[in-house]
């Protein structure tokens, strides 16, 4: 059938494929993009990066030989009149071979499973980080379509920007007053869902001062793409200065102000010198019906997230966002 | 009066977007053109008798495949629109709300209205032929399944021009999908489009399960079943357990929206997380539903084009059954970040990884089927060969995602998008294409010329890698899924731009395929295929192409996995089976009821979408009447006389 000399396509295709591959590998390096997930700046992110590397290597141990093997087999046994490789049309079973390729994946997956389970317990998000310094607590609430950060110890709040002291554990308590979102600062560590009616706990830490990328990772409607924020990790001293500055130069967040924030819409960065007492707990327990406690301690092996389990009556109208 | 009408129309039709006006005009013109052509050539009767009322599994299969290719086009255009929007930072091509509708419909259409019907099309065309049966177990139900799917899909697609599309994501998590956040009718279209076609999917699952259990040729014991049929069987097991979950979940969501229930709203004690668990209890098995038949297709093709018996038959069967079992124990890996705690996450991480073992074994078995074979590079085989590395890499990134603590970094990022497109395109789409090319001559009686097919193959494949490899990278750079736009400062645009180029290359590949088919239809007389154009191995190749309506003039035997191959060997040695006497063949009669009943379902669905109870009741009443009419129709079968069989066989075989 293919008596013609090598057609142009046969030369062009491999060349194009090679060029594309090279371009893909080199391009992001040239373009200055940053692989934030692989460039962690804190202990949690670092452990996760290690785990990604370990699991990639474990998988590569099996897939690289298989890829080579497939190429060799396809090349060697292609149908060519002058192909002298063996041809055994009825060879369809070999217990020895099958035992090998059931066993090898079982071993690899077995190792990976052990590693995974260990890391799963180690990196349980609500597990406090070992540190000499006491953690800073930050209460996070995802709203339509902005992030509200409250600093209960400092008494201040911010929208769409986050300041944390470097080299000190940060205990995030997270909830949502909107559809479920996901709080993600890739360089510090993996994400966790923010859900209404629940308070989740996530410990992260920045080892170095710097500015990091943060965003909402779960789709929550029209402008969820605007839910990104910078994370500024500074020295303790600078952090204290910043708090003082916010205290002095910003307005207070009132309950009315908060209600306005919950309205669907995007928001610029904002700073507040104070916020209503117990606001976070109110958000968490907003939907609590008599006799049905909110999951204020969800998935947490540590101390309670702080929300009072009480049967606090919901005073919010049920369809607040039906407007 | 006129004002009222205007107001109604502006609510009823989607307005204000030039893209949608364009689509409306295109739909209008196409509809008029179809009606005009059918009328001009006096084809209405032909259409009704041969297609709309048919219960012939082969024709139903062809209709499934045509519908699914049209849906592939629609879903593909959605994909290209998204890629255009993301090609550059701060693009203003699609408004965020419109973008959300586009990715919602893209996902829903590709899984439920493209992959599923394509799969059912292959089931229908091939399974009865492979097991030596004359039809499926319930031919009437089979026709009903098709029309339910088709009208469900039409209802869903209607949302594009009437009322507005759903925009809460393809799995429609509450509260986004609740009345509070999606007050329009888009979400109702989603619920009813899927619900109506879902009934059809469940029925198909049952139908083929019974067909395979009860209608195998004499001698075809379970361990002699062709591999594609085995894959269909394992798929049907999953359908049987997974689809009822979907039906119930969507019904509850509809009750929330329509009747003010609170199953999935936090107030009054409901819980959205319940929905997320339920939808993934269906959603994860669903991906195995669509991929297992592709594994079956690959098994058939690898063996045929290597001219060799499939290696490790028992392992292959065992592996598939394990996958269908394990598929029900992995759903929570879709929300490792929900804070279920380390115990739950560890359990689901491990069950998810376990699936890699049987899948890996299958890959080895395919490779060793080729080993010491003779590999012919026809298009079905090329798609199969392309699948292997693609799926190995996609499978590996899947294993990476299953590592729960690492998934905290991958979740909802473009890394995930790249992974599932790699397994779904590399596994499912490549598999179905391979199957389509492989069985094309059996369906239509002519063979496609390979030249355009090879162009299609290469543009698709190169396009695929150019499109999705950058998405892994951009995911590691922190780009999250479903973003409608991003800034210059992110450093993402180069990779996104490359990805968009790849997407368009795949689009070009699709055009090559359309051209290939059009070209084949134009020249079909000169491309006439014999009964066995690939020198293949299973029973479907022992009869003429296309298969006569009764499939087998005499019931074949199925004593060997590669029965037809063995038969050819025997014939080569001069051993012929004894001539069997022809007998009249019992066949089901055509019926218009499946079509009419599905139209009533459509009417009912449309009524529910807009909350017009009178219309919903009217539709449901029509459904009921159709059921009664069917239960009183006694004249549902007929016999094909021996003379006619002789004539048909002579003309089919004579012309080859």
Automatic annotation (TrEMBL), chain A:
It is a multi-pass membrane protein. GO terms for molecular function: oxidoreductase activity. It holds the Pfam family COX_ARM. Residues 133-245 form the Cytochrome oxidase subunit II copper A binding domain. Its EC number is 1.10.3.-. Keywords: Cell membrane, Electron transport, Lipoprotein, Membrane, Oxidoreductase, Palmitate, Respiratory chain, Signal, Transmembrane, Transmembrane helix, Transport. The keyword Endoplasmic reticulum does not apply. Its main location: membrane. Gene3D superfamilies: 1.10.287.90, Cupredoxins - blue copper proteins. Residues 299-314 have a biased composition (Polar residues). The keyword Electron transport applies. It is found in: Cell membrane. CDD domains: CuRO_UO_II. InterPro entries: CcO_II, CcO_II-like_C, COX_ARM, Cupredoxin, CuRO_UO_II, Cyt_c_oxidase_su2_TM_dom, Cyt_c_oxidase_su2_TM_sf, Cyt_o_ubiquinol_oxidase_su2. It comes from the Bacteria. It catalyses: 2 a quinol + O2 = 2 a quinone + 2 H2O. Residues 294-323 are annotated as: Disordered. Residues 29-127 form the Cytochrome oxidase subunit II transmembrane region profile domain. The chain crosses the membrane at residues 12-31, 51-78, 99-121. Catalyzes quinol oxidation with the concomitant reduction of oxygen to water. Subunit II transfers the electrons from a quinol to the binuclear center of the catalytic subunit I. Belongs to the cytochrome c oxidase subunit 2 family. NCBIfam families: CyoA, QOXA. This is Quinol oxidase subunit 2.
UniProtKB/TrEMBL annotation, chain B:
The keyword Electron transport applies. PROSITE patterns: COX1. It comes from the Bacteria. Belongs to the heme-copper respiratory oxidase family. PANTHER family: CYTOCHROME BO(3) UBIQUINOL OXIDASE SUBUNIT 1 (PTHR10422:SF35), CYTOCHROME C OXIDASE SUBUNIT 1 (PTHR10422). This is Cytochrome aa3-600 menaquinol oxidase subunit 1. SUPFAM superfamilies: Cytochrome c oxidase subunit I-like (SSF81442). InterPro entries: Cyt_c_oxase-like_su1_dom, Cyt_c_oxase-like_su1_sf, Cyt_C_Oxase_1. The chain crosses the membrane at residues 20-41, 62-82, 102-127, 139-162, 189-213, 225-255, 275-298, 310-332, 344-368, 380-404, 416-440, 452-473, 493-515, 599-632.
């Amino acid at each position: 059938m293919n008596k013609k000399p090598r057609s142009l396509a046969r030369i062009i295709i491999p060349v194009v494929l090679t060029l594309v591959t090279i371009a893909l590998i080199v391009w992001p390096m040239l373009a200055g993009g940053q692989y934030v997930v692989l460039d962690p700046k804190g202990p949690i992110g670092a452990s996760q990066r290690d785990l990604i590397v370990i699991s990639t290597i474990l998988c590569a141990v099996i897939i690289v030989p298989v890829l080579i093997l497939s190429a060799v087999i396809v090349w060697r046994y292609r149908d060519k009149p002058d192909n002298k490789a063996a041809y055994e049309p009825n060879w369809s079973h070999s217990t020895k071979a099958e035992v090998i390729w059931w066993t090898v994946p079982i071993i690899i997956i077995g190792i990976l499973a052990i590693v995974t389970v260990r890391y799963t317990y180690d990196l349980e998000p609500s597990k406090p980080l070992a540190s000499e310094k006491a953690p800073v607590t930050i209460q996070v609430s995802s709203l339509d379509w902005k992030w509200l950060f409250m600093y209960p110890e400092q008494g201040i709040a911010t929208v769409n920007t986050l300041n944390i002291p470097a080299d000190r554990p940060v205990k995030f308590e997270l909830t949502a007053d909107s559809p479920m979102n996901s709080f993600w600062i890739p360089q510090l560590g993996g994400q966790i869902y923010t859900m209404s009616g629940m308070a989740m706990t996530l410990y992260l830490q920045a080892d170095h001062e710097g500015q990091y990328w943060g965003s909402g990772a779960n789709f929550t409607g029209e402008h969820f793409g605007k839910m990104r924020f910078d994370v500024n990790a500074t020295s303790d001293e600078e952090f204290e200065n910043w708090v003082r500055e916010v205290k002095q130069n910003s307005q207070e967040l009132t309950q009315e102000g908060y209600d306005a924030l919950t309205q669907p819409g995007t928001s610029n960065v904002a700073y507040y010198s104070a916020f209503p007492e117990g606001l976070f707990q109110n958000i968490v327990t907003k939907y609590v019906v008599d006799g049905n406690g909110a999951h204020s301690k969800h998935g947490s092996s540590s101390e309670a997230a702080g929300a009072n389990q009480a049967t606090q009556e919901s005073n919010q109208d049920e369809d607040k966002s039906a407007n | 009066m006129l004002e009222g009408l205007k107001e109604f129309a502006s609510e009823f039709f989607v307005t204000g977007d030039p893209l949608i006006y364009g689509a409306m005009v295109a739909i209008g013109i196409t509809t008029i053109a179809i009606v005009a052509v059918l009328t001009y050539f006096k084809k209405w009767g032909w259409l009704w008798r041969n297609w709309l009322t048919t219960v012939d599994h082969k024709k139903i299969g062809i209709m499934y495949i045509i519908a699914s290719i049209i849906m592939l086009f629609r879903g593909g255009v959605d994909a290209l629109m998204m890629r255009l929007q993301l090609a550059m930072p701060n693009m203003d091509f699609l408004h965020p709300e419109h973008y959300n509708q586009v990715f919602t419909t893209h996902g829903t259409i590709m899984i439920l209205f493209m992959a599923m019907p394509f799969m059912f099309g292959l089931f229908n065309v091939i399974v009865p032929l492979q097991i030596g049966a004359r039809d499926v177990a319930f031919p009437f139900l089979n026709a009903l399944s098709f029309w339910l799917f088709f009208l469900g899909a039409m209802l869903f697609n209607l949302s594009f021009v009437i009322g507005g599309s759903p925009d809460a994501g393809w799995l429609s998590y509450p509260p986004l999908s609740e009345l509070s956040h999606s007050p329009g009718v888009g979400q109702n279209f989603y619920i009813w489009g899927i619900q109506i076609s879902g009934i059809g999917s469940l029925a198909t699952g049952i139908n083929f399960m019974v067909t395979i259990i009860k209608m195998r040729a004499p001698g075809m014991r379970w361990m002699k079943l062709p591999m594609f049929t085995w894959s269909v069987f394992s798929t049907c097991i999953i359908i049987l357990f997974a689809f009822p979950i979907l039906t119930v979940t969507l019904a509850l969501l509809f009750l929330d929206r329509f009747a003010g229930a609170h199953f999935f709203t936090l107030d009054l004690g409901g819980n959205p997380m319940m929905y997320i668990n339920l939808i993934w209890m269906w959603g994860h098995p669903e991906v195995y539903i669509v991929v297992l038949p592709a594994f079956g297709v690959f098994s058939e093709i690898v063996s045929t084009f290597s001219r060799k018996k499939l290696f490790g038959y028992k392992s292959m069967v065992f592996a598939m059954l394990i996958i269908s079992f394990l598929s029900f124990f992995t759903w929570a890996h879709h929300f490792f970040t929900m804070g279920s705690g380390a115990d739950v996450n560890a359990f689901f991480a491990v069950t998810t990884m376990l699936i890699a073992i049987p899948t890996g074994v299958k890959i080895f078995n395919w490779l060793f089927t080729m080993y010491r074979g003779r590999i012919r590079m026809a298009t079905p085989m090329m798609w199969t060969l392309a699948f292997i590395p693609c799926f190995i890499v996609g499978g590996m990134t899947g294993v990476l995602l299953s590592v729960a603590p690492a998934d905290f970094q991958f979740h909802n990022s473009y890394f995930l998008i790249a992974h599932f497109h790699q397994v779904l395109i590399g596994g499912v789409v490549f598999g179905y294409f391979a199957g389509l090319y492989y069985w094309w001559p059996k369906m239509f009686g002519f063979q496609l010329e390979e030249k355009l097919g090879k162009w299609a193959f290469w543009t698709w494949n190169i396009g695929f890698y150019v499109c999705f490899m950058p998405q892994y990278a951009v995911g590691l750079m922190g780009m999250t899924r479903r973003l409608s736009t991003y800034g210059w400062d992110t450093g993402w645009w180069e990779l996104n731009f490359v990805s968009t180029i790849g997407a368009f290359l795949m689009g070009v590949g699709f055009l090559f395929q359309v051209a290939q088919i059009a070209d084949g239809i134009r020249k079909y007389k000169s491309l006439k295929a014999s009964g066995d154009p690939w020198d293949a191995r299973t029973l479907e190749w022992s009869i003429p192409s296309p298969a006569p309506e009764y499939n087998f003039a005499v019931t074949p035997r199925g004593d060997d996995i590669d029965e037809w191959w063995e038969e050819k060997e025997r014939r080569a040695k001069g051993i012929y089976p004894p001539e069997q006497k022809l007998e009249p063949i019992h066949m089901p009669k055509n019926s218009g009821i499946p079509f009419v009943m599905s139209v009533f379902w459509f009417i009912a669905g449309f009524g529910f979408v807009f909350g017009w109870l009178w219309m919903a009741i009217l539709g449901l009443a029509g459904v009921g009447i159709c059921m009664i009419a069917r239960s009183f129709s006694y004249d549902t079968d007929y016999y094909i006389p021996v003379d006619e069989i002789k004539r048909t066989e002579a003309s089919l075989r004579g012309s080859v």
